[in-house]
Design goal:
By secondary structure, the protein is α+β, with helices and mostly antiparallel strands. It has one domain: Gcn5-related N-acetyltransferase (GNAT) (Aminopeptidase, 3-Layer(aba) Sandwich), CATH 3.40.630. Helices cover 34% and strands 32% of the residues. The protein has helices at residues 12-27, 33-43, 46-52, 106-120, 135-143; strands spanning 2-6, 59-65, 68-76, 90-97, 125-131, 147-155, 161-170. The chain has a seven-stranded mixed sheet with strand order 1-2-3-4-5-7-6, with helices on both faces. α1 crosses α3 (46-52). The mean pLDDT is 97.
Length: 171
């Protein structure tokens, strides 16, 4: 049984733990270990999530499978991008699932939840960036209606950037 719960400030440690593990599982081979470690230590730390969860524009949800945290998402409503004509669009900034839960289609459940939340807030679509070498993620988003609309260099560290697709789902 699955449930999706809105994260609160008390969830900062849980999100940090899931964030570190899922980032390494999905991007650990994308750069040198020192670059991955630097990113994880900055963008998946308890302090990072403690701060993120106090900002009302950041909407985090945690998906549970049989009461076990399996992943999380972060969306930002009304986050326009210069390459997208409608201004009332949602940014899907993070959607991560622990590898052990991949085959249960929980990522799809969480994506559908976020899309519904976005639509219920009068958004015209959802956009994201995804690493060009993450074929699993790219195929997931394409299969769910996203289209590649551009490119973006995602700065992982001071010395390394990963090429990303800019993707958009119009409602």
């Amino acid at each position: 049984m699955t449930s999706i719960i809105k994260a609160t400030p008390k969830d900062f440690r849980l999100l940090a733990d899931i964030g570190k593990q899922t980032f390494i599982e999905s991007h650990g081979e994308s750069a040198a270990k020192k670059d991955i470690d630097a990113y994880v230590n900055e963008k998946n730390s308890s302090d990072f999530f403690r701060h993120e969860l106090t900002d009302s524009k950041n909407i985090y949800h945690i998906i549970y499978y049989n009461d076990t945290p399996a992943g999380y998402s972060k969306i930002i409503l009304n986050n326009p991008h210069e390459n997208i004509l409608p201004r009332n669009v949602t940014k899907l900034e993070r959607l991560y699932l622990l590898k052990q839960f991949y085959e249960l289609k929980l990522g799809l459940e969480l994506l559908k939840f976020d899309v519904s939340l976005s639509q219920n807030n009068n958004q015209a679509g959802m956009w994201l960036f995804t690493w060009k070498e993450n074929a699993r993620a790219i195929n997931f988003y394409l299969k769910n209606g996203f289209k590649i609309i551009g490119s973006y260099d995602f700065k992982l560290s001071e010395t390394h950037s990963n090429p990303n697709h800019h993707m958009f789902l119009e409602y």
